[in-house]
């Protein structure tokens, strides 16, 4: 399987974030890339650099004012006397029906959901190349590859059309799905990250052409709190095209695979012509977030099961944080997927 990644994706290096009010080192570290590259290579992937795809594929899922914000906010932030080295919001609108703020501080609050996505001088380029890796993988599949892997870092599934959050800036899985839509009428996104793919859900919430399905730790006491509950089913023309499967905390392989079977029923009923897998590896039992208890062999079985859908598949990296097994878990998923047979 081809894998896509550009060196620029490693430059974004966020320093800190707030967790339950406490300042902690930001876990979305550049070193994740090294582990994931090693994991992809061990699964037999060849790593290729994506092309520069320009602004189009990203503009297809994000608003112009948000993209302008992401590209320019760091320079504007530096002009504020006494401002932090990285852009971190400290005020948010309680609802978004008011005026769009002109100030850098106001816009940071408007476009950033939380403190986990600090913006530095390198963030825009890293996020853009991460998205282009997703575009390149989607184009490989559109050209006939049965599957391709995009080593997307920074990750993307918490980014809405105009809001960053949870280490994410550009929604790479959404960009991949929208790119696939050029060739096919219906695309399903299956998100297996520990956390609910709230940004992806938000982007496609009113659309019937992209089915969004997410398995994740129950958000009742877990990030992203406000989204990911089973009663969120879509709206307007998209009603019935969003499907959430919250899992009890510490659920292991058996519960995860059972939920996956339920997800597959919904995906098959949608009859998609292509699939995007939002591949978080943070459901792992040894991940620093510790929300679920999937094992390394479990990731292999998950990959094998997803391959059983028999769909052209773009695998987009989402979460999964530093632990000894991070690379092994990717190898397990990709190897399992490669060995999976259509059922
Ligand atoms: Zn996650």
Automatic annotation (TrEMBL):
Feature: compositional bias, Basic and acidic residues: 1-15
Listed GO biological process terms: epigenetic regulation of gene expression
Ranges for region Disordered: 1-31
UniProtKB keywords: Hydrolase, Metal-binding, Zinc
Domain Histone deacetylase: residue ranges: 27-335
InterPro entries the UniProt entry points to: HDACs, His_deacetylse_dom, His_deacetylse_dom_sf, Ureohydrolase_dom_sf
Cofactor(s) essential for the protein: Zn(2+)
One Pfam family in the UniProt entry: Hist_deacetyl
Listed SUPFAM superfamilies: Arginase/deacetylase (SSF52768)
Any one Gene Ontology molecular-function term assigned to this protein's record: hydrolase activity
Similarity remark: Belongs to the histone deacetylase family.
Protein name (database record): Acetylpolyamine amidohydrolase
């Amino acid at each position: 399987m081809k894998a896509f990644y550009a060196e620029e994706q490693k430059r974004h290096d966020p320093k800190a974030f707030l967790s339950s009010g406490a300042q902690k080192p930001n876990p979305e570290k550049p070193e994740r890339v090294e582990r994931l590259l090693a994991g992809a290579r061990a699964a037999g992937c060849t790593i290729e650099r994506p092309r520069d795809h320009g602004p189009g594929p990203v503009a297809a899922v994000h608003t112009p004012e948000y993209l302008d914000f992401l590209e320019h906010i760091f320079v504007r932030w530096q002009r504020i006397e006494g401002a932090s080295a990285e852009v971190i919001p400290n005020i948010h609108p309680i609802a978004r029906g008011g005026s769009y703020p002109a100030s850098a501080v106001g816009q940071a609050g408007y476009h950033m959901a939380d403190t986990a996505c600090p913006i530095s001088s390198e963030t825009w380029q890293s996020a853009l190349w991460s998205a282009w890796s997703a575009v390149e993988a989607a184009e490989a599949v559109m050209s006939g590859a049965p599957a391709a892997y995009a080593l997307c870092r920074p990750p993307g599934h918490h980014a809405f059309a105009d809001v960053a959050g949870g280490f994410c800036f550009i929604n790479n899985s959404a960009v991949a799905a929208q790119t696939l839509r050029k060739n096919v009428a219906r695309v399903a996104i299956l998100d297996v990250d520990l956390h609910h793919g709230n940004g992806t859900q938000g982007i496609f919430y009113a659309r019937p052409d992209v089915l969004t399905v997410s398995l994740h730790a129950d958000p009742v006491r877990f990030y992203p709190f406000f989204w990911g509950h089973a009663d969120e089913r879509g709206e307007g023309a998209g009603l019935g095209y969003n499907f959430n499967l919250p899992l009890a905390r510490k659920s292991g392989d058996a519960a995860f695979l059972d939920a996956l079977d339920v997800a597959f029923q919904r995906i098959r009923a949608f009859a998609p012509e292509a699939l995007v897998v939002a591949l978080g590896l943070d459901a792992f039992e040894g991940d620093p977030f510790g929300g679920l208890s999937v094992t390394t062999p479990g990731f292999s079985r998950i990959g094998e099961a997803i391959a059983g859908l028999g769909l052209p598949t773009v695998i987009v990296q989402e979460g999964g944080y530093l632990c000894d097994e991070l690379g092994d878990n990717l190898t397990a998923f990709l190897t399992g997927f490669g060995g999976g047979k259509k059922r």
